[in-house]
Description:
There is one protein chain. The protein is an alpha/beta fold. The chain is built from nine helices and eight strands. The chain has one domain (5-226): TIM Barrel, CATH 3.20.20.70. It has an eight-stranded parallel sheet. β5, α5 and β6 (135-139) form a beta-alpha-beta unit.
Amino acid sequence: MSEFFIAPSILSADFARLGQEVDDVLASGADMVHFDVMDNHYVPNLTIGPLVCEALRNHGVTAPIDVHLMVRPVDRIIPDFAAAGASYITFHPEGSEHIDRTLGLIHEQGCKAGLVFNPATPLDYLDYVIDKVDMVLLMSVNPGFGGQSFIPSSLKKLEFARQRIKQSGREIRLEIDGGVKVDNIGAIAAAGADTFVAGSAIFGAAQEADPHRYESVIQAMRERLAAI
């Protein structure tokens, strides 16, 4: 099993003080910063673009930035996020006319590439491009909004995805996004995930001006993961 990574989603952060929020969540033990990029077209919401990624890099954030593109089409925006400092760029198969080409574009821009699967999207795409994938992201909610409940059937899908990754013999991260909390992260990890996106579960913690205020939630998650 790969090392476990916790990736707080800034969708649930306080955008009026985003730089400090990201500093604080990293100081509290997070491993990556997760960007939920929505276009009000592929999904029914509108969020952030490359300028926010660039601003966080200029602010001094050095942790990996994990950019999840919920946009259609995707190719136009990929070079902008790469130039802005993205580490991983993942996209939905439905957002690309040529999935293999889009994965290649991400790599050409110097980033790691991944595919994202909605709850009812089959994993079959992986059969043809798994040699070009660095991350598989499974949505455990329907994309578009934060704060939704985890869809239980995602656990079985995680098991199937982990089997495909194991058979490939490649180092591919298996990420889960949607409804991840302290009380279910252990079961999610047992099903095969090694990277956990959590938004409201972390940023919904007490808002007092303490740079380590998110530490108790992240530490509780680590304890559940350690028991796997």
